[in-house]
Amino acid sequence: MAANLLTPPNSQDPPDRLLNRTAQVAIGASNTLRIPGDSFHDDSGSWFKTGAGQPSVTEGNQVKYFIDAPETFGEMVAAIRTATTSGHFIYLLNWWVEDKLELLKNDEPGVTLGSLLQQASDEKVMIRAMFWDQQFSLQNNAEANRINKLEKGAAIIDSRGNEDILPILENIIPLHFGSQHQKVLCVMGEQGLVVFCGGIDFNTDRVKSKVEDSSVTKGAPLHDVHCRIRGPAAADILQTFIQRWNDHPEGQKHNRPPNLGGKGPLIVLNALPPSAGPQIVQIGRTFGKLDYGFAPNGETTAREIIRRAIRNAKRFIYTEDQYFVGNPEVLEDLTFALKQNQIKHLTILLTHWRISDLPLVQHHRREFIGKLKAVGQDRVRVFTLQPPGSDSRQFEQGLIPHTYIHAKLWIMDDEFAVIGSVNTNRRSWSHDSEIAAGIYDTSNDKILTCRLAHWFRINLWQEHLNLQSPEGAAELTDGVASAVHWLHPPPGARIHPYDHTEPGDQHLPIPILGLPLELAIYDSVIDPA
């Protein structure tokens, strides 16, 4: 792709092999031809929770999803390059940033986030960034320092969530192990406001395997998803950056005019972005009770988007999640979908516990998934990415590439999708800063269309099931019938059934603790409510 042009939206045409096919008809008789595509209906009112305390639901958005980092990075580069003059801006919220990471690799060597921001600053573009204060690490500090040295740049290392007994111990003994987990890019440039959110940060384990770089996460490059939003909902994501920045003491210092030692106040919108597409979007967030001026009692609207969608599912639910250890609310909602709504399948793709970085992940899955199985039985189907025939020792060492699931997504009935940074655990639903987009597509612009959520699932399943041909897309069109391919995988599929009852686990690296104390630490520190 040309890394200086924003790409068009995802296709809305039904899979080609469903359109271009021979139809057998009888002469002199009535014939019925099934025209493929999602029939028009606007059921948006049932998918979104509205009312007091809930985020706005906006129409007229153009949402484009991206699968994995290379595709995402290319689009981010194109968006950043639209910011070319004063009055334009680039705002970033990230959990992890490596500004020397090559973003385009073979397509255009040498392009990094750092080089893009340097060029933008030289062109008088405003650059602002907030990066998470990584526990036990100085990661992100050098990146923030380099932005602060730019003429038009200012950056903050945000430690909210690391509250501890003594402030001097903040980077040594954090109390909650909370985090600022949002992954957001907002660009105002020649093509208007373009924003991104999802699960992808600027880090090496998105593009390199452990064979190439031993320092990266097991199972890298990570499987993940992200999305680009244009239209009114983009302003809601931008508002998240503005609120966090202006609420932070360092942000207030940077907002001062240059003659008072600052870099100047944020550039903000004078009006909502114009309508850009057919999608209806609601942006939800999580903020802990950390005395935010804009959310003094915290905020949990991200989980409300997910909860409403789960309870509204009538046919099936598909989710990908890094941890999938659950919480009381999601257990209640999935139980409702399985028991009351009688959905045909709940299909879950997660990271295998042997390459997970979460202590006691298998212990909590045994309980959580076990309860779901008790209700849904064989309708609850759990998988991991583990190519058939792969060496088990190499897999456990994390040397099999692209087996770590970092995505946080939900797809319901091929009608509704959630893309964001929200894991299925307790902290993402209540404590850490998170952001997610709930997306509904009426598919009402022409007769033959497939909704965004529909194509999103098809494309994900094509990758996992090795059905990436046009015929594969057609085969996967029905989200209920084609789920048989998870139970009987085609040749080359990368999936493997996950045994939630398997003994073993990742433990805290202190053998003398014992399970009861480990669980107490997990509940109060690692995955707090």
TrEMBL record:
UniProt-listed InterPro entries: PLD-like_dom (IPR025202), PLipase_D/transphosphatidylase (IPR001736), PLipase_D_fam (IPR015679)
Residue ranges of domain PLD phosphodiesterase in the record: 401-428
Keyword annotations of the record: Hydrolase, Lipid metabolism, Repeat
PROSITE patterns linked: PLD
Highest taxon above the source species: Bacteria
Species the sequence originates in: Phormidesmis priestleyi ULC007
Keyword Mitochondrion: no
Keyword Ligase: no
Organism lineage: Bacteria, Bacillati, Cyanobacteriota, Cyanophyceae, Leptolyngbyales
Database matches in Pfam families: PLDc_2 (PF13091)
GO molecular function annotations of the record: phospholipase D activity
BP GO annotations: phospholipid catabolic process
Signal sequence bounds: none
Protein's recorded name: PLD phosphodiesterase domain-containing protein
